[in-house]
Backbone:
């Protein structure tokens, strides 16, 4: 972030987008018995062993780094993104289908390395 701050002209804008591995549901289907519920825990364990963290949004690390670099007037936006084709709203359904496809296509890399690294 310090390098981005150094390179920007006065009045410049930095945009950063980071996903959260926290999966929640409004209807309670993601609960203690769900594999999705353990998703952040698995990545936190992996981070402890390998170094890079996957919780920069959840724990405020990214925001702190941006502030420490010298940026001010920060605006933070958090979005709920559906997973799957269940939403009635067409745009939300399309977004959910895209999110599901990304998870399904990337699942091997997302799960295999951390899963085999932490046992």
Residues:
């Amino acid at each position: 972030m310090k390098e981005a701050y150094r390179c920007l002209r006065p009045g410049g804008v930095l945009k950063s987008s980071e996903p959260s591995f926290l999966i929640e549901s409004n209807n309670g289907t993601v609960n203690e018995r769900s594999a999705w519920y353990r998703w952040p825990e698995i990545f936190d364990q992996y981070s402890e062993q390998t170094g890079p963290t996957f919780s920069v949004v959840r724990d405020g690390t990214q925001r702190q780094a941006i502030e420490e670099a010298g940026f001010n007037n920060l605006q933070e936006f958090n979005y709920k993104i559906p997973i799957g084709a269940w939403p009635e709203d067409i745009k939300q359904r399309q977004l959910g289908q895209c999110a599901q496809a990304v998870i399904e296509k990337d699942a091997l890399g997302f799960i295999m390395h951390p899963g085999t690294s932490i046992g």
